[in-house]
Amino acid sequence: MPTDQLSITLSALADPTRRAILARLSLGEASVGELSKPFDMSGPAISKHLKVLERAGLITRGREAQWRPCRLQAGPLKDVANWVEHYRLFWEQSFDRLDAYLAEVQANDKSPRRGK
């Protein structure tokens, strides 16, 4: 089992249900019942997903009388964004090289050909 925070966060984000839960929580806090509505799964299954998100530090669960609201904690997502940023630079440089190559190919296609 991963122990560094980035690995724990990425592992939690690997599941589409958990990503959908985070997307819903980005709109505001919600109860477990509200979070489970769009999914065809049992309450215990949703609770397992919430536990993974909570262990990853991506959500918190409060207690207000009988209501247990879940809230998004976006801090770990910033770590993921920072990690991905490094690769964004790689892809931008790759696209710049591709643009230069395509411009060169197009210029060669437009140059007059001998023998015609």
Describe the structure.
This protein has 116 residues and is mainly alpha-helical. It is built from five helices and two strands. Strands 1-2 form a two-stranded antiparallel ribbon. Helix 1 packs antiparallel against helix 4 and helix 1 crosses helix 5. The longest helix has 36 residues. It is elongated, with a radius of gyration of 23 Å. The termini are far apart.
Task: Characterize the overall form.
Answer: elongated
Q: Helicity level, as a percent range?
A: 55-70%
Structural class by secondary-structure content: mainly alpha
The biggest beta sheet reads: 2 strands, antiparallel
Trace the largest sheet across and list its strands: 1-2
Number of helical elements: 5
Radius of gyration: 23 Å
Oligomer: single chain
Spatial gap, N to C terminus: 67 Å
- Average predicted local confidence, pLDDT: 89
> What order do the helices and strands follow?
HHHHEEH
Low-confidence stretches: none
Using DSSP, what is the number of strands?
2
Strand content: 5-15%
